[in-house]
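Exercise 7. Given the encoded structure of a 360-residue chain, write a plausible sequence.
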């Protein structure tokens, strides 16, 4: 038996419970978690913004050590440190054949599986976004496991599984920021902090961080922000003032709210790029008129998982970490136990802190 944070129903509080995990079957891996990041996507799953089969064990940003492997698994072995990949590509769907593995049509098929049972009554449990990282141990498909590159602390490595891949990919893959360009990042949580660091790595000059909380300015500047704007109805005007009245070359929205997306758009220069990373609800409607679309000539694009290929990008990120360009620890503002996840959810709703990291 292992302890896990169980979501019994959409909108219900998480429950710390004991669960029974099976031995790994063919093509599966059992992992003892070292750490798991508490991501806004977990909150969105718990409150119904994103759909998930329940009861479920959430958590999709994790790292740990292989306990055992099932038949046919050869790329990792017991004792190996690994990172969880919550969106493995199938390699055969239309998106995968185009090389757009982040849009894989089958990436989340495993979330509907029954992967474990509640010890108290034997009830079925689903693995959240495939990997069920809010537990002391988990059993996942081998495709959800990536070997951890050397020289990366195991606990901090959990952040590579979502926040860092998303922020890095937003800058390097989606927006394709070039050296000397200007960038604004809306939302200074785990993904926003990763995006700010990635903009610095890309060689951006002016890097503006935007958040509703004045308290996050120190966090933002520590990872590369050159300017900080407390969100208001004048945000777009302030950003244009900071950029010679032009607007930034690239704006990255990490919140998922209609008003923030619209402000990011208005903060982008004529001909610039606006990238939306934040996951919003269906009620968040953003409107544009036909004339402004023509006049401003901006590009507006969504960004799924940073448009990243984890198998290719994790080694690149590891090299940035080893070289001192990417500081994983700077993203973490709270290290908690398993029963601290509800409090971390509350902090996200209140807009407090960066990334909370569950330490097992």
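Solution.
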């Amino acid at each position: 038996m292992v302890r896990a944070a169980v979501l019994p129903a959409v909108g219900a509080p998480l429950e710390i419970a004991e669960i029974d995990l099976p031995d790994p079957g063919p093509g599966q891996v059992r992992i003892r978690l070292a750490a798991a990041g508490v991501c806004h996507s977990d909150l969105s799953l718990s409150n119904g913004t994103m759909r998930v089969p329940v009861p479920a064990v959430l958590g999709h940003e994790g790292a740990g050590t292989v306990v055992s492997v099932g038949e046919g698994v050869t790329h990792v072995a017991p004792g190996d440190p690994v990172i969880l990949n919550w969106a493995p590509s199938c390699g055969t769907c239309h998106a995968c054949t185009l090389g757009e593995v982040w849009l894989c049509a089958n990436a989340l098929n495993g979330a509907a599986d029954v992967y474990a049972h509640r010890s108290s009554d034997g009830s079925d449990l689903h693995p959240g976004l495939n990997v069920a990282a809010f537990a002391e141990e988990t059993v996942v498909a081998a495709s959800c496991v990536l070997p951890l590159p050397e020289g990366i602390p195991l606990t901090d490595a959990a952040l590579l599984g979502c926040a860092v891949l998303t922020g890095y990919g937003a800058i390097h893959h989606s927006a394709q920021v070039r050296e000397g360009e200007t960038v604004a990042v809306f939302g200074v949580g785990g993904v926003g902090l990763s995006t700010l660091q990635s903009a610095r790595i890309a060689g951006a000059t002016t890097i503006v961080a935007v958040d509703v909380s004045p308290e996050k300015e120190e966090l933002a500047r520590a990872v590369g922000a050159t300017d900080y704007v407390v969100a208001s109805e004048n945000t777009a005007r302030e950003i244009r003032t900071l950029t010679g009245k032009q607007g930034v070359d690239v704006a990255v929205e990490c919140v998922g709210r209609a008003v923030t997306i619209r402000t990011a758009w208005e903060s982008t220069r004529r001909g610039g790029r606006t990238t939306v990373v934040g996951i919003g609800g269906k009620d968040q409607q953003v409107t544009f008129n036909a004339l402004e679309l023509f006049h401003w000539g901006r590009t507006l694009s969504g960004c799924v998982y940073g448009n990243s290929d984890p198998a290719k990008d994790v080694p690149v990120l590891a090299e940035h970490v080893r070289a001192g360009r990417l500081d994983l620890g700077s993203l973490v503002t709270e290290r908690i136990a398993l029963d601290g996840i509800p409090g971390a959810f509350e902090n996200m709703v209140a807009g407090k802190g960066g990334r909370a990291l569950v330490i097992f």
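Remark. The mean pLDDT is 96. Students should compare their own answers with the one above.
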